């Protein structure tokens, strides 16, 4: 299916939403207005958004600690995401989850995860449900390069392969697991090569190219939806910010960061649409404005939302 | 109630099978549970009845077994998964404690994780330190999990059914030494042993013993022995270890004025402390004629040699001595 | 003793560094501990001083971190390894509990496993359910492990040194909220806080409070507050949680006749039960004027929202109320 | 280094010792004379013995639950092995370990392990010690095919690779993990291919050929000893007996078992020595007799050894 203009504009919208959202998050943190920590995905918007958008409406997604672009890409409501970040009652988790646990199981969002690699096994289980219940849905499991050294990666890909489960393991390789560069945490060039250990396809893509991301995931979803089993995709990308709120970034050079900033996935998508005459500068400016407005509204919504009542602390431990 | 005599092991299988017949969303997976019928032969025949879609052998991968159960449970199935030995839950603790147990709360009450993890536990089989542990105390320290353990075949059937029907992650601890124990089991398919209700296994007036699992049998023998000497023992089996029905226990202790907790797990950090402290800090304190005693496994890894292994766990004589001790005060 | 003021965090680094200078077989590994200096900046500078052979970044692989520490310890090194957050020990429990802890015993006393696992624990940082747990009770239920936790900078330095010198696997629990707390620390390189010795942090005559870690500070505030009202509180910090110096605690309770255990970890299955039960079943029972109380974290996963998070852990007022409660009887 | 006659005869001796030992173990179990369970390696003697013999004297070995051939191959004392099996005070673990935990750290034997895959991380740690202390020793880590699906396999091979540790991961692929055949527990033909995930060499060998086993391990030890990092070897073999003492073996055919019995590694080594005129029938018969005698003596030693005193139950928890 060729990418429609509508889809592309929506993608552009969500990528901008994600960017604006995270810039705002950074702003909140810099002012000590938010409790806890956060992991920004600025620079990874194509990887997080375009991948989710390539799914069908009812497909499932499991996100990571660096999950804002992912959940915004999935289409969760920016108001409730922002409210959750601020720990408000109206947030997706009623303030109990925060940045690292934004989730909406009802719509198929299995949640961001504070455990590196925590989403692998959950995704395998969710894919088992889809297979068993014959829903025709697939699971997109986000993970980072560093997480592929966890035992859970290995166990999960192996089991998914044997059971031919409808799950896409989608690795956002942003070159670092926290401060540890990929050449220090593994002895191979492409993580996609690890697919061979499980007899499944492994694909490397440019994670900063929204079009390539979209088309690859679309095909992968087809593949796994048709019963051919899981697939491993490595999306090469880069995070512009530090690992989390406090990171001196001694492990990388300013030049490297600048180099990647030049590969801005949002600008790139914009350029693509203009060069291919899909949309005009004005149209795109308008989309950006809309995204900015959406963010403003979300912030307003969140700030004006009530704090959860302290008595709710003991609610919802058990069903 | 119509009854049939069967073993603890068969009762668990029966309970699982009935629930799988009743609800097609109940599936079962683990290592060698299919054709092999499980390391203890517990699930023999289930593959034949339910087929490969519902009785699924896994690779030796405990972490993903637990995590996949959580993921499947959160998305519409009611999986039963098995750790071949409870000791291997050490490999699955992240998925069990950080994912399955916390998902609902972390997500503001929106997830439901109706899974059962079966955990064969305990020593006495000569399997040495890595195949004999009783780790229920760990699990009871994880809000979001429920922890249950049957001590008779009837309980085993009714409790596994209740666990499967429960909408939360339930750790179902089985006692390997009880697998071959026989008892009458209700054949009624609606027979359920509800979670969170302690069972007064034997009434008495002088001392309350709280115990569960394999060692409960020794407690019963000791209780009968001292009865002949005029000491009347009330025995309470909590069945659900977390969240525990402590009220029934407290009521019993208020009546008897004395309490002993007996378990097989290592004493330090074991549930004995939890139960003893709960009794002592309750209104039963004012009725206590003696301190609450704990009788538990030694603080050692379980040794292989038969005599050493037996020495780790309290025997009937030690239980009787504990009874004498609280009575003599 | 010559002293220098420094933070808890710096004191741990100093203790590690001194031991690494003293004994070249001490090495240190974990995730992002080198150039990054650890998630909390605790080990900043250690890579520079000791080099890549001794300060080693690992991939994100908690299981092998723990297992490699055990293997290295059994073969001549004295590794310190780090779980970035205590919550991640869930991934390493097999290697910690089934391998490191049991090796010596299983092998008939022939192995020696002198390793230290550092475990930053506790809530109050807004990091939500998977980054805030206090799991010391699990570790104290594993015979073969030792479990220690310092509550002051001085203790932190002396205790990490003792842990490194100990010939057994020692779990060293650090309290994230204490990292920036300052205090006087002996600069003497032979200053050691021995394992297995409780510290009477404050003498008193009316009630004994047993507590450790971050919450001990609240206990001290509460103790000082009620002192003004004429209630004299003795505060005991066990420091070593397993095997615990319970004698010092029992002696204190015999003197005061009242005891309260306060910790941050979830109440059910927490160490409070263990300590309370140990007191009650000791000779201190006859001296008790009130039941031993436990004050602990709520049985919930830790929520993100600041107010909710704060509500999980007992505050100064609750501690004071507990004191009033035991005094009014 | 060519295999000397002396080495070959010693190998033949230990393989026979292992076979006789395990036949005796089966006999003990059939009579209920032993507590617990056991996992026999009959049929895997070349894999277990020849590999250990290819090591240098001070190299280290980590064994598995199916470890009798491995520890006998390593050169542990048959008397004390047998005594441990019977839970006696004179056993390697003073009766505390039993069949699944025979160990002798002093001589470099890091112990059999009751946890499938439990030896991987321990071996990585032991190899780290060798590297750090510059001992020039290497670690031979035994494991089974089924164990390579554990997360610990993945984490351990990756770490060993990054740190270039002197360790050989030696997988005895006997086609089954308990009842689960390899094609049901993984989706690839050769486990050795998993080496690619870690950028290390992966080699498949015929585990029933003692000569090939010996020569491969010798070369691998050289490789890893010289600082080139770890290596993964897959040794294809077969267990003749059931998984453990109670196993109806419904998961495999009698024919398959017979087929593999025809590939008896002991007979094969014997044939090799005779065909290559390395040793005569008489010499080899004599070696077999010596092995039988050694076993008889070991059994006698074990049976006559005292039980550990019950008071020792609390000894040796801590150093
Ligand atoms: C099990 C576990 N180990 C360690 C951490 C701490 N941690 C959080 S994010 C992170 C880096 C993850 O790297 P990667 O998977 O590449 O994802 P990225 O952060 O680059 O998106 C680490 C080490 C954690 N949260 N969970
Ligand atoms: C962590 C763990 N999971 C499961 C088991 C139970 N178990 C013991 S041996 C075994 C099969 C192991 O298969 P493999 O690694 O191929 O070794 P083999 O028995 O074939 O030698 C299993 C499942 C165990 N001991 N440890
Ligand atoms: Mg990364
Ligand atoms: Mg095998």
UniProtKB/TrEMBL annotation, chains A, D:
The keyword Oxidoreductase applies. Keywords: Oxidoreductase, Pyruvate, Thiamine pyrophosphate. It holds the Pfam family E1_dh. Its cofactor is thiamine diphosphate. GO terms for biological process: pyruvate decarboxylation to acetyl-CoA. Residues 15-310 form the Dehydrogenase E1 component domain. One of its GO terms (molecular function) is pyruvate dehydrogenase (acetyl-transferring) activity. InterPro entries: DH_E1, PDH_E1_Alpha_Subunit, THDP-binding. This is Pyruvate dehydrogenase. The lineage of its organism: Bacteria, Bacillati, Bacillota, Clostridia, Eubacteriales.
Automatic annotation (TrEMBL), chains B, C:
The keyword Oxidoreductase applies. Gene3D superfamilies: 3.40.50.920, 3.40.50.970. Residues 6-181 form the Transketolase-like pyrimidine-binding domain. Keywords: Oxidoreductase, Thiamine pyrophosphate. InterPro entries: THDP-binding (IPR029061), Transketo_C/PFOR_II (IPR009014), Transketolase-like_Pyr-bd (IPR005475), Transketolase_C (IPR033248). GO terms for molecular function: oxidoreductase activity. The keyword Acetylation does not apply. It comes from the Bacteria. It holds the Pfam family Transketolase_C. Its cofactor is thiamine diphosphate. This is Alpha-ketoacid dehydrogenase subunit beta. It comes from Alkalibaculum sporogenes.
């Amino acid at each position: 299916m060729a990418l429609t203009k509508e889809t592309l504009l929506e993608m552009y919208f969500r990528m901008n939403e994600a960017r604006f959202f995270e810039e705002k998050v950074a702003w909140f943190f810099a002012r000590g207005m938010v409790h806890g920590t956060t992991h920004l995905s600025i620079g990874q918007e194509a990887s997080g958004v375009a991948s989710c958008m390539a799914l069908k409406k009812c497909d499932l997604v499991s996100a990571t600690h660096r999950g804002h672009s992912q959940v915004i890409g999935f289409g969760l409501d920016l108001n409730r995401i922002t409210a959750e970040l601020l720990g408000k009652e109206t947030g997706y988790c009623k303030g109990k989850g925060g940045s690292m646990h934004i989730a909406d199981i009802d719509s198929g969002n299995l949640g961001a995860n504070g455990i590196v690699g925590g989403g692998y096994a959950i995704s395998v289980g969710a894919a088992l449900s889809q297979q068993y219940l014959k829903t025709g849905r697939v699971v997109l499991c986000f993970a980072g390069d560093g997480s592929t050294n966890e035992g859970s990666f290995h166990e999960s890909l192996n089991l998914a392969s044997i059971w031919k489960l409808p799950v896409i393991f989608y690795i956002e390789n942003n070159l670092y697991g926290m401060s540890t560069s990929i050449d220090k945490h593994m002895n191979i060039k492409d993580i996609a090569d690890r697919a061979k250990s499980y007899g499944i396809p492994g694909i490397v893509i440019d994670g900063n190219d929204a079009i390539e991301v979209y088309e690859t995931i679309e095909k992968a979803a087809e593949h796994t939806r048709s019963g051919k089993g899981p697939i491993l995709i490595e999306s090469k990308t880069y995070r512009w910010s530090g690992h989390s709120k406090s990171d001196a970034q001694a492990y990388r050079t300013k030049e490297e960061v600048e180099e990647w900033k030049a590969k801005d996935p949002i600008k790139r998508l914009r350029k693509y649409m203009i060069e291919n005459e899909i949309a005009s500068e004005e149209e795109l400016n308008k989309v950006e404005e809309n995204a900015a407005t959406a963010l403003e509204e979300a912030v307003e919504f969140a700030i004006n939302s009530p704090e959860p009542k302290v008595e709710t602390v003991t609610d919802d431990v058990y069903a | 109630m119509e009854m049939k005599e069967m073993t603890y092991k068969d009762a668990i299988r029966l309970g699982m099978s009935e629930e799988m017949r009743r609800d097609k969303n109940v599936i079962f997976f683990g290592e060698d549970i299919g054709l092999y019928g499980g390391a203890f032969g517990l699930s023999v025949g289930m593959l034949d009845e339910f087929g490969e879609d519902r009785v699924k052998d896994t690779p030796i991968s405990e972490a993903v077994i637990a995590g996949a159960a959580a993921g499947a449970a959160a998305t519409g199935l009611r999986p039963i998964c098995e750790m071949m030995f409870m000791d291997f839950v050490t490999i699955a603790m992240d998925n069990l404690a950080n994912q399955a147990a916390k998902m609902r709360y972390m997500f503001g009450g929106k997830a439901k994780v109706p899974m059962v993890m079966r955990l064969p536990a305990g020593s006495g089989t000569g399997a040495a330190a890595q195949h004999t542990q009783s780790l229920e105390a760990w699990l009871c320290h994880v809000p979001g999990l429920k922890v249950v353990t049957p001590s008779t075949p009837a309980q085993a059937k009714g409790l596994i059914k209740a666990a499967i029907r429960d909408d939360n992650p339930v750790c179902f601890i089985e006692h390997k030494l009880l697998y071959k124990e026989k008892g009458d089991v209700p054949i009624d398919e609606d027979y359920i042993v509800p979670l969170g209700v302690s069972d007064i296994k034997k009434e008495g007036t002088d001392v309350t013993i709280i115990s569960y699992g394999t060692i409960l049998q020794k407690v019963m023998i000791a209780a009968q022995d001292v009865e002949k000497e005029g000491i009347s023992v009330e025995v309470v089996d909590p069945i659900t270890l977390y969240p525990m029905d402590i009220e029934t226990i407290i009521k019993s202790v208020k009546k008897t004025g004395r309490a002993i907790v007996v378990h097989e797990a290592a004493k330090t950090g074991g549930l004995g402390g939890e139960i003893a402290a709960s009794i002592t800090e309750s209104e039963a304190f004012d009725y206590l004629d003696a301190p609450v005693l704990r009788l538990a496994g030694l603080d050692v890894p379980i040794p292989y040699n038969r005599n050493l292994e037996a020495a780790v766990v309290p025997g009937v004589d030690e239980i009787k001595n504990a009874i004498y001790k609280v009575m003599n005060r």
